[in-house]
């Protein structure tokens, strides 16, 4: 009797990417060797850059996060292809005196760099990283912002509590 067993194979190596492969192995009850052929791991890449204030000054001791834009998700029999870097976790870097940050040993893919300044202003950008690429000039800049003062009232002129006001720039 021949039965089919699904197995997930994960191949990782230091300073290289990762590949996950879903394998459907036929087993006839006999022990034996299954030749899976050569497996080529992607070359590691890196992303480095500088975090800038709205006026263009480097920002020191600030947290910059990096995360994959699209999570790899689960492998199924329908996605029976190699998945490079199926496990990429979010990472954080703290900027140095010159506002520099960096992330090494990255697999190819699309990433988002993001930060939130002490006033709660969010800045982000997306980057595509090729196999073995070193992006060295990413510039993440906090957008210029100001403060707005507004009082929200009901039709009788009474102030309303718990109101959110969002202001956007049409670009």
How would you describe this protein?
The chain has 171 residues and is mainly beta. 0% of the residues lie in helices and 42% in strands. The protein contains no helices and 10 strands. The protein has strands at 3-12, 18-27, 45-52, 63-68, 83-84, 91-94, 100-106, 109-116, 122-129, 134-141. The strands form 3 sheets. Strands 6-4-8-9 form a 4-stranded antiparallel sheet, with no helix packed on it. The termini are far apart. Residues 71-84 have low confidence and may be disordered.
SSE topology:
Elements: E1 3-12, E2 18-27, E3 45-52, E4 63-68, E5 83-84, E6 91-94, E7 100-106, E8 109-116, E9 122-129, E10 134-141
Parallel strand pairs: 3-10
Antiparallel strand pairs: 1-2, 2-5, 3-7, 4-6, 4-8, 8-9
- What Rg is obtained from the alpha carbons, in whole angstroms? 24 Å
Q: What profile does the largest beta sheet have?
A: 4 strands, antiparallel
User: How many alpha or pi helices?
Assistant: 0
Q: How would you describe the shape?
A: elongated
The total of beta strands comes to: 10
Enumerate the strands of the largest sheet in spatial order, edge to edge or round the barrel: 6-4-8-9
| Protein structure class | mainly beta
Low-confidence residue ranges: 71-84
In N-to-C order, the SSE pattern is EEEEEEEEEE
Percent helix range: under 10%
- Termini gap: 65 Å
Average pLDDT figure = 80
Q: Hey, roughly how much beta strand do the residues contain?
A: 35-45%
């Amino acid at each position: 009797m021949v039965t089919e067993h699904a197995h997930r194979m994960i191949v990782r190596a230091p300073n290289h990417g990762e590949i996950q492969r879903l394998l459907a192995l036929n087993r006839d009850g006999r022990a034996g060797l299954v030749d899976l052929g050569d497996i080529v791991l992607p070359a590691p890449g890196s992303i480095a850059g500088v975090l800038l204030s709205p006026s263009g000054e480097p920002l020191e001791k600030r947290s910059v996060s990096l995360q994959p834009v699209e999570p790899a998700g689960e492998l199924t029999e329908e996605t029976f292809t190699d998945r490079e870097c199926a496990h990429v976790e979010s990472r954080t870097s703290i900027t140095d005196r010159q506002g520099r940050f960096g992330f090494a040993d990255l697999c190819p893919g699309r990433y988002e760099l993001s930060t939130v300044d002490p006033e709660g202003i969010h800045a982000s950008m997306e980057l595509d990283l090729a196999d073995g690429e070193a992006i060295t000039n990413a510039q993440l800049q906090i957008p210029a912002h100001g403060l707005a003062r507004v009082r929200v009232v009901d039709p009788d002129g009474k102030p309303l509590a718990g109101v959110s006001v969002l202001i956007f720039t049409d670009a």
